Amino acid sequence: MRAVSNDAPLLHDVMPWSVRPLRIGRGWPMAAEPSCLRARWALFTGTADQDARSALLHPTRARNLHTPVAQLPGHRTPTTALAGETGRCPEPVRVQHGPYDRQWLIPDHRLIDVARAEIWRTADDRQVFALEQAYQARPASVAESGAPEPAVVFCALLPDGRSPAGRPGWIRPLFRQPGGRDPNIAPGLTALLSARLGTEVAAADVLAWIGAAARPGPGGALVPLPRDPALWQEGLALGRRTLWLQTHGARFADPAEGRDAGRLRLPGGSRPYVRSPLPDTPAAGELSYDPDERALLIGDGRISPVSPAAWEVTAGGVRVIEAWFERRTAPGAPGTLEALRPAAWTRATTSELLELISVLTLLAGLRADREGLARRLAVRGETVTTAELRAGGVLPVPAARRRPASVLEHHEEGPDGQFALL
């Protein structure tokens, strides 16, 4: 396949405002189950000895038992020092960990070194986050045997922006303000595309196109923009389905197009089921895959069918299913709050695994369509050049569009109960 022209605009210019990944600074405020977080919080706040409580916190230069912090936007958690905290655990929230894992987080700013409050302010039921992945040069052995990782993935949950391999990328929200206001799209781009393609182009259309057409590059993800209206429509259909899958049906649902809200299911013959009961308490290292039987093995338990394409999906060079399983079974270091793990593998955990397998299988099924679209976009003269974007006033992007928008109507509590107007 020929590479996308380097004259394609960067995602950095198409979606100008970006945020670095969160830096939590400690592992224990995030877990696969909210009950586990409540148990950790109870142990932490029930420890009266200050030295012991400090050790459990895992203090850093950014956070200790006495660090003054403001509330996280949208979460009315205490802002008094952790040294005297005895209250109940703040209600855990669902977040996106890396490209594909969904975890729970205690939304307490006192526990998070760098929370990126600017994206918490924009997280609502209309927001979509584009996660630009760090560029990886693919070794020849991987290029021959494995499928390329997407340059950009998407989620509806607030993301931490992390990679299983520890390579952070960028978080790019679709909207700069709550309520689906102020799209994070280069000014003038939707108007230029509307004129070129002869159809109205919305910000969500640009995001869907990115989901279908973005390609990795050493300088950042590239977004080739088409001249052909038919190619545009093909990319929109592919991108909408991609984003619907990656957000687990939370965004871009359209029952008329087979995209039901919150309902992702494979056809009956390829739908994974538990064929042999899974262990009550599986241990790290008990996961394996049998390609001949198309089965995922967990101890003596078996799930099938699981396609090789789903098993081989990677993020940051790490198999997604293996990283997901490791996250739920690896023992924490003795004496730490991370050592407090869920007591057993639950039915909900199995359901999440089956859904992850389904998502990865369905995404793998779109691979040929993505490759076909990329081949047609690689034809010389088929895409809008950066020179045209400059001539149309889209580039360069104004510096103000790379900074967070002001959110003046939101009161947020600062340290020790003081209020700040943002």
In short:
This protein has 422 residues and is of the alpha+beta class. Helix content is 29%, strand content 15%. The chain is globular, with a radius of gyration of 23 Å.
Secondary structure layout:
Layout: H1 11-14, E1 30-31, H2 34-45, H3 50-57, E2 93-97, E3 101-105, H4 117-120, E4 129-132, H5 140-145, E5 152-155, E6 158-159, E7 170-173, E8 175-177, E9 181-183, H6 189-197, H7 203-213, E10 225-226, H8 229-246, E11 273-276, E12 287-290, E13 295-298, E14 301-304, H9 308-311, E15 314-315, E16 318-319, H10 320-329, H11 347-365, H12 367-377, E17 383-384, H13 386-391, E18 411-413, E19 419-421
Parallel strand pairs: 2-6
Antiparallel strand pairs: 1-3, 2-3, 4-5, 4-7, 8-9, 10-17, 11-14, 12-13, 13-14, 15-16, 18-19
Question: If you had to describe this structure to a student in words, what would you say it looks like?
Answer:
The structure is a single chain. The chain is α+β, with helices and mostly antiparallel strands. The chain has 2 domains: 11-261 and 368-421, no CATH class; 268-366, no CATH class. It has 13 helices and 19 strands. It has helices spanning 11-14, 34-45, 50-57, 117-120, 140-145, 189-197, 203-213, 229-246, 308-311, 320-329, 347-365, 367-377, 386-391; strands at 30-31, 93-97, 101-105, 129-132, 152-155, 158-159, 170-173, 175-177, 181-183, 225-226, 273-276, 287-290, 295-298, 301-304, 314-315, 318-319, 383-384, 411-413, 419-421. A 4-stranded mixed sheet has the order 1-3-2-6. A 4-stranded antiparallel sheet has the order 11-14-13-12, with no helix packed on it. The chain has a 3-stranded antiparallel sheet with strand order 5-4-7, covered by helices on one side. The radius of gyration is 23 Å and the shape is globular. The termini are far apart. The relative contact order is 0.17.
